[in-house]
Specification:
Elements lengths: L1 H18 L3 E15 L6 E2 L1 E13 L6 E16 L4 E18 L2 E19 L2 E3 L8 E13 L4 E10 L13 E12 L4
Antiparallel strand pairs: 1-3, 1-10, 2-4, 3-4, 4-5, 5-6, 6-7, 6-8, 8-9, 9-10
Length: 193
């Protein structure tokens, strides 16, 4: 039911964005501070990674106060244990579709996200495991953030939180974990905001 609802919201926001005013295209790059959340994630620490990709904005109002912001981002996620003897590295294509409020130099954004796992590996001691079939290939979640944007320059600097609603796997014998991610992101919109 949750997946169906999220998929419906995703499609609805995409259709609204397509009917809105012409898009502004940009790029986004930054640092990730990733970890796992859930019942079995207490003994795992966060890891650093990065994200990069394309972003666009479709103005809903004539003054661009409200916009829809779909993105396509490559994003590194994962976690490690305290002694760095066990490390999970996962690579995703994240597709958030965010509602964005442009309030002067401040902006606020929030919305659903679908993520597609590209690959990754698990390092345990001196062994590397490349077979990650027990992790789902697709997950659903949400993103919310705040930042500062410079209208004339087209630059923005923001922080964002991404949380998965979907578990990383469906196997009851494996840990109950979800991706949990903080992002520090620098964006550039071609032609200004």
């Amino acid at each position: 039911m949750k997946k169906t609802l999220l998929f419906f919201v995703f499609i609805l926001t995409t259709v609204i964005a397509a009917q809105a005013q012409g898009p502004k295209i940009g790029v986004r790059v930054g640092a990730n501070y990733a970890g796992f959340s859930g019942d079995d994630a207490d003994n795992l620490d966060r890891v650093f990674g990065f994200h990069a990709g394309l972003t666009s904005q479709f103005a809903i109002t004539s003054d661009n106060f409200l916009a829809i912001q779909p993105e396509i981002l490559f994003s590194q996620k994962g976690a490690e244990d305290d002694d760095n003897n066990f490390k999970v590295k996962l690579n995703y294509i994240d597709v958030p579709v965010l509602a964005r409020v442009n309030a002067g130099p401040l902006y606020f954004e929030a919305g659903p996200q679908v993520s597609f796992r590209l690959g990754g590996d698990i390092e345990s001691g001196n062994t590397t495991i490349d077979d990650l079939d027990f992790y789902k290939k697709t997950s659903f979640g949400y993103a919310a953030g705040v930042g500062l944007a410079s209208t004339p320059l087209g630059l923005s600097l923001g922080v964002r939180y991404n949380g998965d609603i979907s578990k990383l796997n469906d196997n009851a014998e494996l840990s109950d974990t979800r991706n949990d991610l903080f992002m520090l992101t620098l964006g550039y919109t071609f032609g200004g905001r």
